[in-house]
TrEMBL record, chains A, B:
This is Thiamine-monophosphate kinase. Mg(2+) 5 binds at D212. Mg(2+) 1 binds at D43, D120. Mg(2+) 2 binds at D43, D72. Its EC number is 2.7.4.16. SUPFAM superfamilies: PurM C-terminal domain-like (SSF56042), PurM N-terminal domain-like (SSF55326). InterPro entries: PurM-like_C_dom, PurM-like_C_sf, PurM-like_N, PurM-like_N_sf, ThiL-like. The keyword ATP-binding applies. Keywords: ATP-binding, Kinase, Magnesium, Metal-binding, Nucleotide-binding, Thiamine biosynthesis, Transferase. The keyword Amino-acid biosynthesis does not apply. NCBIfam families: thiL. It comes from Virgibacillus halodenitrificans (Bacillus halodenitrificans). Mg(2+) 4 binds at D27, D72. It comes from the Bacteria.
Length: 321, 321
């Protein structure tokens, strides 16, 4: 199969987005959006760095890569519309396996009515997937991390640490229970699009998606908003079977595990009931986990654990170290 | 330098596009465009496949990668507005060299008032650059390759084969003249944005940019428009000093060389004077090189050379072979 046949094989037969004027098949795609703001982000995933074939099927690799990108749109309050995908294909990967990656992406894309409108497929030494997503948000309603204010309630959706636990279960042979739940959370996470969209009537709300661990996301919101944050350790939500892991693992995974693709945010006490309503309406677990404080001197984020207040460093994974 | 410091180093201090609401620094960028259509494309470049450090400085690699993407926007008649860049950085590349790649991109971006609004920098085995560009085109004026009609004039801007000749000069030690011209055409090509924008008043015009060689682009227009094409070999424009290369090289490079990032198109005889005016206004070389015919049986594109009509196969470089 050459590149043209491959592109033809992944090309959609029809498009779902009414704003799309031209999909794949010209020098570029064209769309029209006159009523809403446009949101866009890009993320890149490299085999051996971001994923391994030992723990993920090609289907999961595609699914999760797109989920990570959609999660960025959710963190802006946006509705996913389009995606463009670049794939670098090494000889060790069969074209059929790369197709499986796309099938994984499409499975998730279809559930949001997203269209694949562009891409590039080239040869190289290691499988690399780069995805650009485009979404729409009602004018002026994009959710920035820079709007947190002192006395805001800090909240988070879902449970944390599950994805990291799933990775652990895929690489360790110890006997654990409910492994499927954690593995599914790792391989096919669900971005919180519907919940974020349901916050539409709230004028000010800070949102971040949890890609690098809540410690990192909390620090990002605090820094961008020039505030501090105090999180209550016992309020950080974890799943029922999370306690089977060691205390050290639980602590590390819920704060630094990342890739849960839940949403973390801050909102005024006055608007907190609306956030709770949005969670109920969209069947989303929601937890109040802390409070926004004045900017602190040494650490932007503190946790209260066993009645001791301690600084929480961001330990999200960073490249170029 | 860690990833955050690197992102900070490439982040623009201010943005030029008035339609931008949020640049780098949140989960995604946000912009608003209520009057024009939005055009987007992605292209990926891998070291050793698309470029080599033997023939390009990091600056040129960035410059040319973005030029290739802007050329896609030009082929749609669009004005460049934004770009997002993903870079996979191997250990063999210093962070400073990756910064040079960005400086090359920014040099070209600045000349179009483009803003860098997103990106991702990750570790990997080989330098890989993936760029997504976003541009604007007046409503309904995006230029599709599918609108060519029988009896249209086929035209091309600039001269062809120069970039391939430049690559040859960078890898061969033979004595040639005017090497700087060809090398510059290879390393820092100029997309034909202004020319394409000046065609605004023409209602129907097919456009492709020449990334894979004119043989391939002609075939793409012919296939998409369900027509045939006859090109006159002696009309294919080449630069003054192109004749110093062998006849075989000249033929191969002008038809299959690619990466000249000139524009090829077809337009009705009636609108041809407007195209010529646009070329004059933007100081662009323009050549009439053929005519659109009815769809042919065996080959979509023919050339007339030495009074003999022969089929022209597309021999653009394709991956996955």
């Amino acid at each position: 199969m050459d590149e043209f046949a491959f592109i033809d094989s992944i090309k959609q037969r029809s498009y779902k987005q009414s704003s799309l004027l031209k999909g794949i098949g010209d020098d570029a795609a064209v769309f029209r959006q006159t009523s809403e703001d446009i949101v866009t982000a890009v993320d890149t995933f490299v085999e051996g760095v971001h994923f391994s074939r030992d723990t993920m099927q090609p289907f999961h690799i595609g699914y999760r890569a797109l989920a990570a990108n959609i999660s960025d749109l959710a963190a802006m309050g946006a509705t996913p519309a389009f995606f463009l995908t670049s794939i670098v294909k090494p000889e060790s990967w069969h074209v059929q396996e790369v197709e499986e990656v796309f099938i994984g992406m499409k499975e998730l894309a279809n559930s949001y009515g997203m269209d694949l409108i562009g891409g590039d497929t080239v040869s190289g030494k290691e499988l690399t997937i780069s995805i650009t997503v485009i979404g729409y948000v009602p004018g002026g309603r994009a959710r920035y991390r820079s709007v947190a204010q002192k006395d805001d309630i800090v909240f988070v959706t879902g449970t944390l640490g599950d994805s990291r636990a799933g990775l652990h279960l895929l690489t360790e042979n110890n006997l654990y229970e409910h492994t499927e739940f954690f593995i599914q959370r790792h391989r096919t996470p669900t971005p919180r699009v519907e919940f974020a969209k349901s916050l539409i009537n709230i004028s000010r709300i800070a949102l971040n998606d949890i890609s690098d661990g809540i410690a990192n996301e909390a620090a990002e919101i605090a820094e961008a908003s020039n505030v501090g944050m105090l999180l209550y350790d016992e309020s950080i939500p974890t799943s029922s079977f999370f306690t089977q892991f060691s205390m050290k693992q639980q602590h590390e995974w819920k704060y630094f595990g990342g890739e849960d693709f839940e949403l973390m945010g801050t909102v005024s006490r006055q608007d907190w009931p609306s956030v709770k309503q949005a969670a109920e309406k969209t069947n989303t677990n929601l937890s109040e986990i802390g409070i926004v404080t004045e900017k602190n001197k040494n650490s932007n984020v503190f946790i209260m654990k066993d009645n001791i207040k301690q600084g929480l460093n961001k330990c999200g994974y960073t490249h170029f170290r």
